[in-house]
Amino acid sequence: MLSMQFIREQTDTVRKSLEARHTPAPIDEVLALDERRRALLGETEGLRAEQNAAGKQIGAAKDPAERQRMIDEMKSVATRVDELAPELREVEERLDLLLMEIPNIPDPSTPQGAGEEDNRVETQHGEEYTDPWRKPHYDLGEALGIIDFERGVKMSGSRFYVLKGAGARLERALIAFMLELHIDRHGYTELYLPSMVKEEAMWKSGQLPKFRENLYRDAEEDYWFVPTAEVPLTNLHADEILEPAELPKHYVAWTPCFRREKMSAGRDVRGIKRVHQFDKVEMYKFCEPERSAEELDRMLEDALDVCRALDLRYRVISICTGDLGFNAARTFDVETWAPGVGEWLEISSVSNCTDFQARRANIRFRREAGGRPEYVHTLNGSGLALPRTMIAIMENYQQEDGSIVVPEVLRKFMGGMERITAG
Fold this sequence. Notes:
eight-stranded mixed β-sheet, single chain
């Protein structure tokens, strides 16, 4: 969330940011509400000061008639204070809601662009390739008996599936491998997190109000299913002041993720590329503001390290202003080549959210004992997302005989299995 002071003092910057994002936001209404709020506060505080001064005079008055006259005069002041209170409350509530609708300011290094077509390829490792015998993962998975689409749909409807045997074991192996890599080599602390949170947590992490239509929630209780571990990770230190030497904090967590995919209706309906429930290993960082650019580069390298260990062809995409996520100031996507479907698949999105989420969640730190609290910077990144990593493994490691070679780094998590074959 942007501070009202920043919007008031840097209005042109905010307007230019929205233009660069190609995103509308109610800036004029926000400014008008802020002006009205300050006027109401000023009047209310003036009246209360008048009440306080009069109270002292009334207490010191010797003449009962004079005292009663002053009391009668203050009745109209008290009535006006009572009249102002509901309007002030209504203005503040509306202002707070509108502030939640304004996205983060893009970092100056973010490329300018209107949308996905203007994203920039920064680096690429390996070329696109395919072979006439290569099957897409959905055909390959069914032929090997490791993915069952029919029973997934029977139980839960479209965009659900069942992993069987070596398929389920392969996904579990990928999760275990990625967690071990981030913990042992990259120095993250593993967390086991709730997969359901209160609505307040969705607001604090920036999922609400923008993404309401894509979120699942319990109809009777205040439980929202997480679309990403970013939500509980952001809220881990909500309303806390971190003491000196606590930063940076590097966390990693595996969670199931739940998304309604309303915004992608009709897209990628075949296979496991875009589904309502999926697993993801998420990296998350809390750090000092001056370190967040460096921490973003490190987090990107941590995601790429997974790709290298799995020997996948990948490329890094710099996301332009028009395609930038609501919370993010700077984002890099990592895509891997899937030769069966013949396309680059996003398997990680790594973002620096600066102090945007920290303001919403009220997460601060002190540089020294007793020092003035400052807002932390937060960063998040997939490390990596499944099932698209599954697609990449299946389609890149498939053999002409229809089998799949298990990547060497995964074999110890699969009981030594070297190849997935039918039956």
